[in-house]
Amino acid sequence: MNGAVDLPLGLAELSFDAAGDARVRRSVLPSGVRVLSEQVPGSRSVTIGFWVAVGSRDEQPSASGHPATYGSTHFLEHLLFKGTTTRTALDIAISFDAVGGEHNALTAKEYTCYYAKVQDRDLPMAVAVLADMFTSSRLDAEEFENERGVILEELSMAGDDPADVANERFFEAVLGAHPLGRPIGGNPDTIRAAVRDAVWEHYRANYRPSDLVVTVAGAVDHEVLVAELERALTGAGWDLSVEAAPVERRPVGPAVLEVARPLTVVQRPTEQINLLLGVPGLVATDERRPTMSVLNAIFGSGMSSRLFQQVRERRGLAYSVYSFAPGYSDAGLFGMYAGCSPSKASTVAALMRTELDRLAEHGVTADELRRASGQLAGASALALEDSDTRMSRLGRSELTLGEFADLDEALRRIALVTADDVQALAAELAARPFSLVAVGATEESAFRGAVEAAAPSTDVA
Amino acid sequence: MNGAVDLPLGLAELSFDAAGDARVRRSVLPSGVRVLSEQVPGSRSVTIGFWVAVGSRDEQPSASGHPATYGSTHFLEHLLFKGTTTRTALDIAISFDAVGGEHNALTAKEYTCYYAKVQDRDLPMAVAVLADMFTSSRLDAEEFENERGVILEELSMAGDDPADVANERFFEAVLGAHPLGRPIGGNPDTIRAAVRDAVWEHYRANYRPSDLVVTVAGAVDHEVLVAELERALTGAGWDLSVEAAPVERRPVGPAVLEVARPLTVVQRPTEQINLLLGVPGLVATDERRPTMSVLNAIFGSGMSSRLFQQVRERRGLAYSVYSFAPGYSDAGLFGMYAGCSPSKASTVAALMRTELDRLAEHGVTADELRRASGQLAGASALALEDSDTRMSRLGRSELTLGEFADLDEALRRIALVTADDVQALAAELAARPFSLVAVGATEESAFRGAVEAAAPSTDVA
Question: What are phi and psi of B93, to 5 degrees?
Fold first, then answer.
């Protein structure tokens, strides 16, 4: 079978051929643990991820009454590296370093993922160590204090990166009080106030068999993987004989957002202004996602894109300029970024608005549409050479999308996108309330003109 | 054949099997063009690089008397994307975007590389476009002015990144007036002063058949590649019938360095101090390079390394901490990096010194030595899955090392490194004059203690 497959939440076992002769399989164990694997013929390495559908957006007061600790999901992620009932932090680090493997974790707004990339022969080790971290971390009180210091340093590092600061503020501006608008890592005050017991409760409440999704891509045999995983989880103390259904997927569909904040200026004594301009976008499961991919490719992805050509190539106003369109279960964004000198920032902001309006009013050419298809096809094929990308794709399919679409199916959907579809979406985006965020040596007055040009003009080409 | 092969500079054709069943071949055309390819069975994509052994260190007054323009090599690199006699900048961008390829360039201290990663069927296009850029760029005067603006923005972006600033100052501090100590991109004054004629002369003087090295890895057939390359270069106007020898490799061996600058503080209103501490290291061809790899793995690479354990895991003093050991033809560095709060910076600096002294005095354990071998072997195997890494390895072999060592040979050399070798090298490094660079909200007085502890103490464990 070749194409898209709905991923049911009940007990299921399915398999099919996916892009590049890879083979995708999915099993749901009686305990609710889900396992997805994609075997890539000829591969000598493997990437494995342990996922749980809990991210920063889910932080709220605990069952026992602890107030919400913003950043506690990320704090917990760090603590899983700090030792289990049978392994010290150094033991964990040595396991992967001794074989030259990569080993890290990622806390996102809607999920947390612990992953490793190793040579094929080291997969059993990776399964064992990740299973131990996931099930049996101690969250030792002394390690908790040490790690508080490390996380405060991580927040400081991000705070020193003006592009990072602009990005956090952009999410807040567009999404308002929606939980997706919060920074993933919390802030220094919430991290200083974090208590070990609350993080422990968070761990116990959310790291159960029914929460766990394991995805593996590369040199993997599905049956062997499932057996190893069951052995590792049982060995680490989980009782997999207790039957449970996987946790329900997060409800999807657009949430009602507050009115976006039109203008945010963060003064910093930097050389450049980090500028972000955008609007609410599409949720991850929106059927117009392929249209958004095409729109974003034409508008702001790659050196031939309109933004790159107008802002950088023709006018030399910026070095880095692009657009982006992240999607989550109940909200999304469409944004445009540029880094430029203070004297150019209002010009760049106006150009960005003008270009989006132009796309909304005059649409795209047949050439652009054809090139976008080629761009998305080629870039996807190259990206899927990495088992990392395939492992992540499986996780996203399971946790967010509820279906797995292989490369052929994804490209078939892209090929169905018409110029009218792109123009209609551009018109919808251009009519939404804009938010502008500028971080740098500037003031609000510099952007009043760009913000007030908010009503789409009919004379922008 | 399996192992290391000297790369002669005369006319030569050789081939041998390298790691992972790949096959390396090298041809020197009568015109002096060198072509190295590594065919990776089963690969569906390919990475290609056009290299020239000219980097920022080579910038000097021109033959016609133009004064040296620091940053002109990087300026030239940008201009090669801005149009040829038969292709506009947009044509070049579209060529790669339309197939979803990656296309970029890199200016380094000792070379410049223009590269692309594409699907196998797009290799002829990549050869044609890169050959056109390399041979026939116009350096149009109007594009020159636009690009000056882009490069000034790129420098501003780097200037806003405190880790980048610290790194530039560290090279200056350790290498002094040596040309390798200069920043690659020049500075705003030199870029504002750059004139098109000087960059044009630089281009004409250094982009000749005898300078060109083409390296390709992935889905490539050597004979077909050579034929396509000859056709593309000839089509773009080069006369390949004129015989020439490749330019001689840059002389190697340690240069005499000035006395390093012990303390550099750049005041910035950032949350963290970006701290670098280090000494002159080994040149790229030093026979102790494998020892340095082992030393660096044990000391500061990975979560089980000594620096990570001492600075982050045990004390929570930093989020990012590691060591590094870049090597060039006639100089090298050994450095330690950490980002941390101002109140912790002198403690971290002292800890780094102490750890290096401890390595020098007490050496490494057999366990550490064994793990370092495993780490380097595994990490190399994973890295070589990317055709990018293999393409770069071929370029470095040709331009810097003068030999190609496959993975087996590289690991054989690593396995020969003894604990005594590592300790002896650590002792040599620890006895060299230290440079400390701190960028952030701090002052020189904060680091006097760390700098004055320069004489290795015997009581540091």
Answer: -60, -45
| Res. B9 pLDDT band, cuts 50 70 90 | very low
A217 and A349 in a common domain: no
A-proximal residues of B, 12-51, CB under 8 Å: 20, 42, 44-45
Tell me the CATH number at B357: 3.30.830.10
B156: chain A residues, CB-CB within 8 Å: 271-272, 339, 341
Interchain CB distance below 8 Å, B303 and A376: no
The model carries a pTM of 0.93
Q: Would the pLDDT of A2 be above 50?
A: no
The amino acid occupying position B124 is P
Q: What is the pLDDT of residues B392-414, one digit of tens each?
A: 999 999 999 989 999 999 999 99
Quote the CA–CA distance of B115 and B101 in Å, as a whole number: 10
CB spacing of B156 vs A272 below 8 angstroms: yes
A220 with A274, same domain: the answer is: no
Which of helix, strand or coil describes residue B216?
Answer: strand
For an interface test with B, give the residue of A385, A388, A391, A407 to mutate (most B CBs within 10 A). A385
**CB contact at 8 A, B350 and B450:** yes
Q: Between the CA of residue B431 and those of B326, B362, B456, B457, what are the distances in Å?
A: 19, 15, 7, 11
> Which neighbouring-strand residues pair with B339?
B274
d(CA A402, CA B69) in angstroms, rounded, equals 57
- Please give the residue range of the domain that contains residue A57: 10-235
- A244 found inside a domain: no
Check residue A5 and give its pLDDT: 66
Q: Is B142 a catalytic residue?
A: no
Choosing among B40, B88, B97, B367, which should be mutated to test the A contact, i.e. which has the most A CBs within 10 A?
B97
Residues of A in contact with B90 (CB under 8 A): 304, 309, 313
Per residue in A298-335, pLDDT (tens digit) is 999 999 999 999 999 999 999 999 999 999 999 999 99
Chain B segment 332-371 residues within 8 A of A by beta carbon are: 339-341, 370-371
Residue A255 lies in a domain: no
Whether residue A457 is predicted with pLDDT greater than 60 in this model: the reply is no
The count of domains in chain A is 2
Residue count of chain B: 461
Residues A364 and A403 placed together within one structural domain of the fold: yes
Instruction: Tell me the shortest Cα–Cα distance from B165 to chain A, in angstroms.
Output: 13
Question: Residue B455 has what DSSP assignment?
Answer: S
Q: Is the ipTM of this complex over 0.85?
A: yes
- Answer with the one of A235, A255, A289 that is the final residue of a domain: A235
